[in-house]
Amino acid sequence: MKKILLVEDEESLINVLTLNLEIENYEVVVATNGKSALEKFNDTFDLIILDVMIPEISGFDVCREIRRSSNVAILFISAKGTSLDRITGLKLGADDYLVKPFNLEELLLRVAILIERQKINISPDVFEFDGNEINFKTYQIKANGEIHTISKREMELLKLLISKKNEVVSRDEILDKIWGKEQFPSTRTIDNYILSLRKYFETDSRKPQYFKSLRGIGYKFEINS
After folding, report:
1. What span, in angstroms and rounded, lies between the C-alpha atoms of 199 and 136?
2. In the chain, what's the furthest Cα-to-Cα distance?
């Protein structure tokens, strides 16, 4: 059973969300203010549903604090729906932002997508191959003797490809698991991310050894192991 921390101070919404999430077979723990959220949070949670305007400590500050030590999926829900609010939430490390009032089915869909992404796990935190090193916790990579800090999306794509090393991963699966069906990026977007990974890890990005493309099918992370 996947575990969700629901951080919300509106009682009626707490009751509705808790009921429907439990129907979907999620375990729900409720915090009604930011201080309580930080006290209750631990690494057993798979997702945080986080209101922005909550007592004691704001949702933005809760997100900022949690991101210092955890990559848990975070979904903001808020009546603050300007572009600036959404951008602020995403810059702080949230994975998604849903404006109130929202459709319950849409929220449940986004929850399912975010939790599915969390299944893309690599253990231990550091993955090494051919003298290269990837730290999934710090977002740092050591490639061709150089150290880089990469973006969250680049790391998610790395996790997916490495979790299926030597297997072809289709474009549709990448779009679904990394971007989510609600965002509709183009397949060209994936090409650009693959090019970035090649620049880090490949000696000659025009003749890739590790991050290979199969025309019309998808991509493969290939190593001998």
Report:
1. 19
2. 58
Of 118, 148, 171, which one is at a domain's C-terminal end? Answer: 118
Which of 70, 101, 118 is the last residue before a domain boundary? 118
Q: Same structural domain for residues 135 and 105?
A: no
Whether a cis peptide bond, with omega within 30° of 0, leads into 101 is yes
| Residues 214 and 142 occupy one common structural domain | yes
For 6-33, give one letter per residue: b (16+ CB within 10 A) or e.
bbbbeeeebeebbebbeeeebebbbbbb
Mark whether 85 and 180 lie in a shared domain: no
Q: What is the DSSP letter of 131?
A: T
Asked if pLDDT for residue 122 goes beyond 60, the answer is: no
Could you say which DSSP state residue 25 is in? T
pLDDT tens per residue, range 176-195:
777 765 555 666 788 889 99
Confidence of residue 147 (pLDDT cuts 50, 70, 90): very high
Q: DSSP 3-state assignment of 183?
A: coil
> Is there a contact between 70 and 142 (Cβ–Cβ < 8 Å)?
no
Q: How many domains does the chain have?
A: 2
Output 158 or 173, whichever has higher pLDDT. Answer: 158
Q: What is the span of the domain harbouring residue 141?
A: 126-221
